[in-house]
Design goal:
Blueprint: E1 2-4, E2 10-15, E3 20-26, E4 36-42, E5 49-54, H1 59-63, E6 73-78, E7 83-90, E8 101-109, E9 119-125, H2 127-134, H3 141-147, E10 152-159, E11 162-176, E12 179-194, E13 199-208, E14 214-222, E15 227-232, E16 237-243, E17 248-257, E18 263-271, E19 276-281, E20 292-296
Antiparallel strand pairs: 1-2, 2-3, 3-4, 5-6, 6-7, 7-8, 9-10, 10-11, 11-12, 13-14, 14-15, 15-16, 17-18, 18-19, 19-20
């Protein structure tokens, strides 16, 4: 799986069979016309790295790039290990020529569940922190620093046992006297939520609540048992289970106001086994909430079944 940071320059690819991660750097520009290039391979990760998610870069790091160096981070999950690896991108900009590389800065073990050795999809919700940062003026570093006390919410699905692991990423401001010298991210897990058998992916989406406002949900898809579960991060419960067709896999969301100002929300589900796209209603106020409204294209059975 390939994921980049919020700025989109470094791209990290996990290699399940070789326990490694590759770094690609996007050097595209209108003048050069060049694209991403392979710069480095980080070996000797824990067994079965399978998914990657970029840690959203704090606004303080973006506006203070000349004052201190911030190394964009990625979290890597593993299919054959209980570890979550955090790797950092080093741009090596002071070298001539620059040779960017990756460093594994820390490893977090899943100690919440009995086995926890098959972790798949990852998601990070930075909504609350970014809402705080949005009200800070460009020169108010103290305001941006205060926003870092709001942690990022972190989610990973585990297949052994089938569960959603919930945690947070805290960011500490490192100082030398009054001068900021850097930022340190710390990942921790604090909650286990049982899921239908065979979860394989997790994504953040929004539904329309009873009051007509948009509400965040954490959607997990279980390929094996054909269910999608929606977890409410505020109430800490799964409040919706959606029955799908065979082999649900990819998810995408469309939520926001219509021309008349009323919110609407839909979930698009790609079915791997029967090769079709389904559209699910995510408006709690309607009787069709949590059901498929339409299929885009007819289901097509695998060739060996035809």
């Amino acid at each position: 799986m390939v994921l980049g940071t919020a700025e989109g320059d470094p791209i990290v690819v996990a290699h399940e069979s070789s326990a490694a991660a590759s770094l690609l750097v996007n050097r595209w520009s209108e003048d050069s016309g060049s694209g991403p290039s392979l710069e480095y391979v980080l070996p000797n990760l824990d067994a079965g790295p399978i998914a990657v998610v970029g840690i959203p870069v704090p606004r303080l790091a973006r506006v203070s790039s000349d004052a201190f160096a911030y190394r964009p981070g990625f979290v890597v999950s593993h299919r054959a290990s209980s570890a979550l690896s955090i790797v950092r991108y080093e741009d090596d900009s002071v070298s001539q020529p620059a040779r960017p590389f990756l460093v594994r800065s820390s490893v977090v073990s899943n100690s919440l569940s009995h086995t926890g050795t098959d972790q798949r999809g990852l998601a990070i919700d930075a909504t609350d922190r970014q809402a705080c940062e949005a009200v800070c003026v460009e020169t108010d570093l103290a305001c941006m620093s205060k926003c870092l006390s709001t942690p990022l919410r972190f989610y990973v699905v585990s297949r052994a046992p089938a569960s959603l692991l919930v945690g947070e990423i805290e960011t500490k401001v490192d100082k030398d006297g009054d001068a900021i010298t850097g930022l340190t991210d710390r990942l921790s897990l604090d909650e286990v939520v049982p899921l239908p058998f065979g979860p394989s992916a997790v994504k953040l989406g929004r539904i329309v609540g009873l009051d007509g406002a948009l509400e965040t949900r954490v959607f997990t898809v279980s390929f094996d048992s054909r269910f999608i579960a929606a977890y409410d991060p505020r109430a800490h419960v799964i409040d919706t289970i959606i029955k799908t067709g065979r082999g649900p896999f990819g998810m995408a969301f469309d939520a926001g106001p219509r021309d008349d100002g009323e919110n609407e929300a839909y979930l698009y589900v790609g079915h791997f086994t029967d090769s079709y796209l389904g559209v699910v209603d995510l408006d709690v106020r309607r009787p069709t909430f949590g059901t498929f409204l339409v299929n885009a294209g007819p289901p097509v059975s695998p060739r060996e079944e035809q």
